[in-house]
Design a protein that fits this description.
With 217 residues, this protein is an all-alpha fold. It has a single domain, classed as MetI-like fold (Orthogonal Bundle). One of its GO terms (biological process) is D-methionine transmembrane transport.
């Protein structure tokens, strides 16, 4: 590849990091509260709200069942309302966040459900309030699983961000389509694939190291 193409590859990489990074933070901030509510409001949980729990679970399942490319197109009006445009990095953040949040919420929910009931009962016997139990029992005990699930979520978001390039979202996917596929330039395609693989490996390695550290505490 030429020097100009390497520069474009670098900028595409930064765009992908930006859209995935911001979307991942949104998914993390929204997914954990959703997961906590799904666990607390489940039958036999600490909060008696079965109707709201079932409604929220149905909404989450609906978003999870929708393919990302379909969700990307369906959310174009909302994306335009929030960002003022339907193309570019920041426009991609909206569908990426909305797609990743339910996915991560379900993974976090599984980790929270695996916390030993005896720990929760012991905390209740000690007179702990619900938010104490969530903050000092549920989340710390489920943290390795949550971090592992968040790693999986980020990896899937990297793939989704490349798919978003098909509709002008920018980043590595846009470069692969515009400068690789449409111009029949195999070198560009290979370069994008190498960068994507390296990103996924780096994220997975960091996530695995974090999980091992948390489990060793």
């Amino acid at each position: 590849m030429s020097a100009m193409m390497y520069e474009r590859l670098w900028h595409a990489f930064l765009d992908t990091v930006a859209m995935v990074g911001v979307s991942a933070l949104v998914a993390l901030a929204a997914g954990i509260p959703l997961a906590v509510f799904l666990v607390l409001a489940a039958p036999g949980g600490l909060v008696h709200a079965p109707s709201m729990q079932r409604l929220l679970a149905a909404v989450i399942n609906g978003f999870r069942a929708t393919p990302f490319i379909v969700l990307l197109v369906a959310l174009l009006p909302l994306t335009r309302l929030l960002t003022g445009t339907t193309i570019g990095v920041w426009a991609a953040v909206v569908p990426l966040s909305i797609s990743a949040t339910p996915f991560f919420a379900r993974i976090a929910e599984v980790s929270l459900r695996e916390v030993d009931d005896g720990l929760i009962e012991a905390a209740q016997a000690m007179g702990c309030r619900r938010w104490h139990i969530v903050w000092h029992v549920l989340l710390p005990e489920a943290l390795p699983g949550i971090v592992g699930g968040f790693t999986i979520t980020v990896v899937s978001m990297i793939g989704a961000s490349a798919m978003a390039g098909a509709v002008g979202a920018g980043g590595l996917g846009d470069m692969a389509i515009r400068y690789g596929y449409q111009r029949f330039d195999t070198t560009v395609m290979v370069g994008v694939i190498v960068v994507l693989v390296a990103m996924v490996c780096a994220v997975q390695l960091a996530g695995d190291m974090a999980v091992r550290h948390l489990r060793a505490r």
